[in-house]
Design goal:
about 25% helix, Uridine Diphospho-n-acetylenolpyruvylglucosamine Reductase, domain 3, Uridine Diphospho-n-acetylenolpyruvylglucosamine Reductase, domain 2, 20 strands, alpha+beta, about 25% strand, binds flavin-adenine dinucleotide
Amino acid sequence: MQNTDDITQIFKGVIFENEPLSRHTWYQIGGPCDFYCIPEDIDNLKELIGYCEKNRYDYFIHGKGSNLLIGDNGIRGFVIDVSKACSFTKIEKSIITAGAGVYMPKLVLECEKLGLGGIEMFAGIPGSVGGAIKMNAGCHGKEIFDVLTAVTVMQHGSTVTMKKDQVEFGYRHVKTFVDPAIVILSGTMQLEYTDAEKLSERRKEFMKKRQQTQPINLPSSGSVFKNPKNDHAARLIDQCGLKGLRIGHASVSTKHANFIVNEGGARATDVLQIIKQIKETVFKRFGVALELEVKLVGFSQDELNNLI
Ligand SMILES: Cc1cc2nc3c(=O)[nH]c(=O)nc-3n(C[C@H](O)[C@H](O)[C@H](O)COP(=O)(O)OP(=O)(O)OC[C@H]3O[C@@H](n4cnc5c(N)ncnc54)[C@H](O)[C@@H]3O)c2cc1C
C-alpha cells in the first residue's frame, strides 16, 4: 500500500496495523490484514470507507468472523469491524431495529427478557446481525428474512432503507447485498409477544440439540457446505466415509460431517485441502456439486482453482 500515514488523522476509532485475523475468526485461522479498524460511529465508518474508496484501497466488512475461512497470507487493505459503530438496538412495541454489529445470541436474550419471540432459534448462531442478514442465516426451519421487515445499508457513502420486498434473497444467499461495497447498518424485525419463560425453554431446547449434534467445543465456521435441494450435505459426506478425515491440524468432525474443525494450530490450506477432497469425493460418488456456505477470503486464484 502507498502512504497511509494520513489515516491516523482522519480516523477516530481503534486501528491495529498488521493485525492477525486468526484473532478475529471463529476458526482461529487467518493471516494478517494491513489495517484492522473499529470505527467509533456511523459517521466515522462513512469517513473511513470514503477514504478507502478515494485512495482505491481494498476494504472488507467484518462481522464476528463466524462464517469465514481467511487465507494464511491474510487480506491486503482494510478490514472494517462494525461492532462498535452499529451496536444500537431500538425497540418499539414488538418491532426491533438492531445494529449490524449486535451479537445475535445477545439480541435473542434481550428480546427474551422483553417477551419477544421469533428469533429464539438463532441463539446458537455466533455471528452479528449484519452477518446474519448478509448470509440470510437460519436454523431449525427458520431464516432471518422470515422476521426482517427492512434493512438499512450504506453504499459509497449513501444510506438507504430497503423494505424486505425490495431485497432479493434465497437460501443462505442475498443477491441484493452481494456487492462487497454494500455495508449493512441495521435490520428491523417484526417479533411476537410470547411468554418469556416459554421462550427461555425453547431457546434451551435448541441449544441442547446443537450441543448434541455439533462440535461446538472446537473452532469451526459452522456448516461448510449449503444443503443441496431436498438433501443434507452432512449425509452425503458421511456416506462417503469422510468423517474423521484429517489434513494437518484440521479434520472433518466425527460428530457432524458438514463441520471441518480446527484441532489446534490448523492452517487455512489444511481446511482448503479437506474442502477440495470432500467436493471431489461427493461429486464422484453422487454427482452432486456441493456449494460452499463458508466464505473464503484472502486466497490466490491458484489456491481456489477447481473449487468454486
Ligand atoms: C459453531 C457455529 C455454528 C453456526 N451455526 C449456524 C446456523 O445454525 N445457521 C447459519 O445460518 N449459520 C451458522 N453459522 C455460520 C455463521 O455464524 C453465520 O453465517 C453468521 O450469520 C455470520 O455472521 P458474522 O457476523 O460472523 O459474519 P462474518 O463471518 O464476519 O462475515 C460473513 C459475511 O458477511 C459479511 N458481513 C458481515 N457483516 C456485514 C455487514 N455489516 N455489512 C456487510 N457485510 C457484512 C462479510 O463481509 C462476509 O462476507 C455457524 C457458525 C459457527 C462457528
